[in-house]
Write a structure and sequence with these properties.
179 residues, alpha/beta
Length: 179
């Protein structure tokens, strides 16, 4: 059974990116995958301090919630990241999470397919390009992995607006189903 990890990085209640991530969760479950949904809200995730001890020990020296989360990333077959777009970039929470996955770099990891779900008020073409580029840069550090798809949810701003967007909900469901 395929293991799909979904990481939602929004800290806002009624988050549009999280609504879309939950639709992807439904799709992945309907496809028969073993799905775990993680919300970064309430998690203690400190900034990477750049000591690189993890490159030798495969563990971060910092004591926070990342030790458990890194194991979940390492053992997933597919990962779906969900983020709001802030200033045309991924959320700081997601960037910090990705930076703290540094212990995975020198190790063997299962994850092959990596997806991104974004939400933003701006619906112009290119709104999520920097977030996509940032995630692709992270993926390039893992030879077995590839960027497998993205849902750019533009034109949604107020909490829970995504719930009324059947087009985006269907796209999120299909992304999860194909993960």
């Amino acid at each position: 059974m395929k293991k799909v990890l979904i990481v939602s990085s929004s800290l806002r209640g009624g988050s549009n990116s999280e609504i879309l991530a939950h639709e992807a969760e439904k799709g992945a479950k309907d496809a028969g995958s073993d799905v775990e949904f993680i919300n970064l809200k309430g998690k203690e995730i400190k900034f990477c301090i750049g000591c690189l001890a993890c490159q030798k020990t495969f563990k971060c020296v910092q004591k926070d919630d990342m030790a458990d989360l890194i194991g979940k990333v390492q053992n997933a077959d597919a990962i779906i990241f969900a983020t709001p777009i802030y200033y045309y970039e991924m959320s700081g929470q997601l960037k910090t999470f990705l930076d703290r996955c540094n212990p995975l770099f020198p190790q063997s990891n299962k994850f092959k397919d990596v997806y991104l779900i974004t939400s933003s008020y701006d619906d112009a073409v290119g709104t999520a390009d920097k977030a996509i580029s940032g995630l692709k840069g992270w993926i390039e550090c893992f030879e077995q992995s590839r960027f497998s798809g993205c849902l750019v949810g533009g034109g949604i701003n107020e909490p829970k607006d995504a719930s009324a967007r059947e087009d985006l909900l269907q796209q999120a469901y299909e992304l999860g189903k194909n993960a």
